[in-house]
Amino acid sequence: MLKFLGWVLFYRYRLAVETDVQNDAIPFVPDLCQLGYDMRPLLWVECGECSVGKLHKLAVKCPEAELWVIKGSPGEVQTLLRGMAKEELRRDRYSLLALDPEVFEELVSLCRERNQFHLHRADFEERHLQFEFNELWFDTTFEVYRF
């Protein structure tokens, strides 16, 4: 569900799910990634579990990429932020997005083999998301953090 919501929120031309970045120096497979025409990552999104060590390596190996992490709750983001601060990762390099945990859990419980989705609004400035999922209306917010 995190990858799906990430796809919806970060959709752009050439966005791919779990793609091979075709670079031996980058030993990771991104959950979501947009590659430029030169095959360098422009956007790298990790959904769910992601180690602090991996984030540090991504900042070094993908210097031009926007680096995002999506978590299912603000508490999960806070835990990751504490780990990033403890390990002294580069500042002003990462963005983290926290979903409303109740809404996220409901979406997970509603997910089926085949689903219906219609996006009405996704606004990063107002941190607001409105959509229909399997014929149910969702009007929710999310939080964005910078590190």
Q: Would you give an account of this structure?
A:
There is one protein chain. The protein has 147 residues and is of the alpha+beta class. It has four helices and eight strands. It has helices spanning 2-10, 52-61, 74-86, 101-110, and strands at residues 15-17, 32-35, 41-47, 66-71, 94-99, 117-123, 128-133, 136-146. It has an eight-stranded mixed sheet, with helices on both faces. β3, α2 (52-61) and β4 form a beta-alpha-beta unit.
Major β-sheet profile: 8 strands, mixed
Into which percentage range does the β-strand content fall? 25-35%
The run of helices and strands is HEEEHEHEHEEE
Inertia-based shape: globular
Helix content: 25-40%
Gist of the model:
This protein has four helices and eight strands; from the N terminus they run H-E-E-E-H-E-H-E-H-E-E-E.
Task: Break the fold down into its secondary structure elements and pairings.
Blueprint: H1 2-10, E1 15-17, E2 32-35, E3 41-47, H2 52-61, E4 66-71, H3 74-86, E5 94-99, H4 101-110, E6 117-123, E7 128-133, E8 136-146
Parallel strand pairs: 3-4, 4-5
Antiparallel strand pairs: 1-2, 2-3, 5-8, 6-7, 7-8
